[in-house]
Amino acid sequence: MTSFTVEQTSLDLEAFWMPFTANRQFKAHPRLLVAAEGMYYTASDGRSILDGTAGLWCVNAGHGRREIAEAVHRQLLQLDFAPTFQMGHPGPFELAERLVKLLPADLNHVFFTNSGSESVDTALKIAIAYQGIRGQSKRRRLVGRQRAYHGVNFGGVAVGGIGSNRQFFADLTPGVDHLPHTHDLEKNAFTRGQPQWGGELADALEQIITNRGAETIAAVIVEPIAGATGVLLPPLHYLQRLRDICDRHDILLIFDEVISGFGRLGTPFATQYFGVIPDLVTVAKGITNGNVPMGAVFVRQGIYDTITQATQNGIEFFHGYTYSGHPVACAASLATLDIYEREGLLTRAQQLAAHWEQAVHSLKGAPHLIDIRNLGLLAAIELQPIPGQPGARGFELFRRCFEQGVLVRAAGDSIAFSPPLIIEPSQIDQIFATVAAVLPQLA
């Protein structure tokens, strides 16, 4: 690959307002990536960087997949754009048919979006519309969970539970309650797989129902695994208890699988891994291997029928995006699904999970480490915060790992790992050997 330096690229960094970034600090000491192939990025100074995060939880099939690039190229030359409002093109119909075969039960309809944030807001609107159409117009409340991340649109921020994301916006979308999060260091630290303790935390939903009235609640939304907050795992029986409570009170259950979908746990989706079937599933990221922005919402048959059969003529659901089912995104996704199928990537995590677990738990006893948690090809370590400087130690580990040629993700003082599913055991060892070397260097 050709290597570049910041000076050679003649970049002026000022105009771009970077998302979720300390802009002034970054622009003073930038970390620029200029190329990628397989498991590796190339930094602007020419170094190879082992990708321990699949980009941003999304490059499940690895970087630089020629099959996807060629499919996108062909599509741009054949049909660069076509509307899906009262019109159509073959792409989203073919893609939807492929996708629903990966889901269990009757999650057999797909509404296309452009991101995880849009998928979440779409799912929330579908849930509220469904309740109203079937004569339950009082069911407008939503239930999220503390420490949850559901994107950055108004609906997702409302049901999300990360304080910094909600700082200026939490009160702009009323009618939302939050379940307690499932993370308990005292009872579950250094758990391998799902924690034994905590399933009963789902019963907090019953208290919310008692306080608000079941007749006012449209839906509950949770991530099967809370990723962005630091890979918080669902305790045994927790998700099934949520499903049972929702069923008793006629409340819809939404799984946000933007991170856990497309093979991260060794099954196509977390719903199969945990054996719990929600009413709607939101996805993005791995749907196109991160190559083109795209998201989707999977919807059960009864919800789709209720909404689409509510009117004899005309538009049934006034919602959508200019780029819903974009031809290029569909081409990228279809090529991605071909790779997943041909290389067995949606189940490959099963083969690697034991080695992955052993590697991350080999860090136990290292300086500053207060927890390790893992499932499938997801893991996180948690560091003791520096008093008065939350997140500083986590960011320092992230920075030093990058300098040592490994990309990890800091979530406060937790460090998340979610590599491309093509990773080899030797590369797993390299990731955690690098972390082990860096930990003693931290303040």
UniProtKB/TrEMBL annotation:
Origin species, per record, is Neosynechococcus sphagnicola sy1
GO MF terms, alphabetically ordered: adenosylmethionine-8-amino-7-oxononanoate transaminase activity; beta-alanine:pyruvate transaminase activity; pyridoxal phosphate binding
In short, the EC number is 2.6.1.18
Official protein name in the record = Omega amino acid--pyruvate aminotransferase
Source organism's superkingdom?
A: Bacteria
Matching entries from InterPro entries are given as: Aminotrans_3, Aminotrans_3_PPA_site, PyrdxlP-dep_Trfase, PyrdxlP-dep_Trfase_major, PyrdxlP-dep_Trfase_small
Q: What class of enzyme is it?
A: transferase
Family under the similarity heading: Belongs to the class-III pyridoxal-phosphate-dependent aminotransferase family.
* GO BP field: biotin biosynthetic process
The UniProt entry, under Gene3D superfamilies, shows:
Aspartate Aminotransferase, domain 1, Type I PLP-dependent aspartate aminotransferase-like (Major domain)
Q: Which UniProt keywords apply?
A: Aminotransferase, Pyridoxal phosphate, Pyruvate, Transferase
